[in-house]
Each structure stands twice: as C-alpha cells, then as structure tokens.
Design goal:
With 85 residues, this protein is mainly α. The protein has helices at 3-39, 44-77. 84% of the residues lie in helices and 0% in strands.
C-alpha cells in the first residue's frame, strides 16, 4: 500500500477520537447558540449574527463527520476494525 494511505490508516483511531471530541464540543456550542437565540428573539441583528455562527459550526460538524466516515471506510478497506490499531 501507498505509505500515505498506511500512515492515514495507522493514525485513524487517534484522529477519530479527536473528531469525536471536536464534534461534541461543537454540538455544545450549537446548543448554547440556540439558547442565546431564544434569549435574543427580538434583536434581529443579534439573531442574524448568532445564526451565521451556528451555520458555520454546523458546516464544521458535517465536515468532521465526513472525515470520520472516510477514516472508518479506509480502516475497513484495509481489514481493520475501528479502534483496533
């Protein structure tokens, strides 16, 4: 196998763990933004800013989930179970 692919597969479990933590933290931030949006329901300008922040975080979560799926697929292709390296 290509050395780059082997390295990526070798590092996949650690990266997946980091991704899980990052997603959890971002989801907590999204929940806080939701709460802040509720508290600022009449301030349209603030709602727009909060909505943009929330959208950015949701896009980052989506990207991280895609990377997570890619890493797990790579590990399965190589006959490795996620979490076994």
């Amino acid at each position: 196998l290509d050395a780059k692919i082997r390295k990526k597969a070798f590092n996949a479990p650690r990266r997946i763990s980091k991704i899980e933590i990052m997603i959890e933290e971002m989801e907590e931030q999204i929940a806080l933004l939701d709460e802040e949006m509720m508290a600022n329901g009449s301030d349209v300008g603030r709602l727009i800013d909060l909505s943009k922040d929330k959208e950015t975080l949701e896009e980052e979560v989506t990207n991280l989930m895609e990377e997570w799926e890619e890493l797990e697929s790579l590990m399965l292709e190589l006959g490795l179970q996620p979490g076994t390296l």
